[in-house]
Amino acid sequence: MAAPRILIVGGGFAGMECAHKLEKKLSPHEAELRLISPTAHQLYLPLLPHVASGVLTPQSVAVPLRRMLRRTAIVPGGAVGIDPEAKAVIVRKINGEEVVERYDYLVLTPGSVTRQFDIPGVDRHAVGVKTLAEAAWIRDHVISQLDLAAASSSWEERAQRLQFVVVGGGYAGVETAAYLQRLTCAAVERYPGLDVSQIKWHLVDIAPKLMPELGERLGEKAMEILQRRGVNVSLGVSVAKATEDTVTLTDDRVLPCRTLIWTAGVAPSPLIATLDAETNRGRLVVRPDLTVPGLDGIFALGDAAAVPDLAKGGDAICPPTAQHAMRQGWAAARNLVAAVRGFPLTDYKHKDMGLVVDLGGIQAVSKPLGVQLTGLPAQIVARGYHLGALRTLTARFRTAANWGLNAVAGDDYVRTSFQRQRPATLKDFEMTDAYLTQEEITKRVEAA
Prior knowledge:
22% strand; alpha/beta; 448 residues; 25 strands; 7-stranded mixed β-sheet
């Protein structure tokens, strides 16, 4: 009898951790392991603002899957549809070829995409901070705005190119604004004819407070640090529309701007919508043991799953953080081993350890285990947490070395131009339109 096939969709925190644990707990004759991922790395998302600002190299935050996984077969592509009745997943490989992958057990960890709203122009003129390609594009783009502003004799064009808008007051938006503002203000000293007073950064969020999950004191401290650096923080407002060279806010302000960075939350991967299953705000509803009701052999976890937060109780669901995704990956692996061997499954439960927000330099705000920290102690905790969460010694060494080199030598303001000819929209970077309808899924599975 053939060993059951465990198919894992997604190589992020949840998917890679699940595969890694399964390799340790199941022998080769007990299960065949396959992982579907369009990239051959696990991306450490919390450090993307460091990549966008050039403090870290892209390789530092991209942990190779093949360094972590020894006997899991990696399918180079993305899942674009699922047929639970046929126990089949349609995969579009990186060369465009479509194949059907069969499974006995399916682990869904497709992650999330940048949340978009029906705001005119955002789909064409905004870019997120969810992928390495986006981070690399943002760095090139921001430096190119300085280059073009310095070369322009038009004050109107300079105002557009030296004004930057970040939407989203969560940790991703705050860190992105903090790091890129430091980059531009340091870089402008290398540009004769430009002055730091011409650089204007705006952080916009519809919520009344920055990072409410950190508490009022730390949120206000973060805002104080940003404002002291010159970042204009606008709360209780959002974007009404965007064009190539303006951003209009809901309070009727029109900002001349050619850079709109969108970090206003995340939405589950569109892959979830291809399933005829119950969702909670787009996230797949799962039991506490991470199984999906009504879908035989399917587990779901990470950003795309509404996992009950038993530590908080009530109707709470786990937030879409790396911390929960990693631990859910471990829990899913334990339950898959139990399922393969015929043992009962156990529920996922984890008490949140808090958040860390790195604002660059020696500035940070952190709340580890409920303890509120600011300044250098918070920065030590933040960077120590990130180094501990990176999954290989090589990644930790690269990251620590990059931080050290940047602290000593400063930034180099180099445009790589790798993304120069690439369309820079959320859809192009995050492939949100790549998924099939249920009818298309059925036809392809039947044909296979």
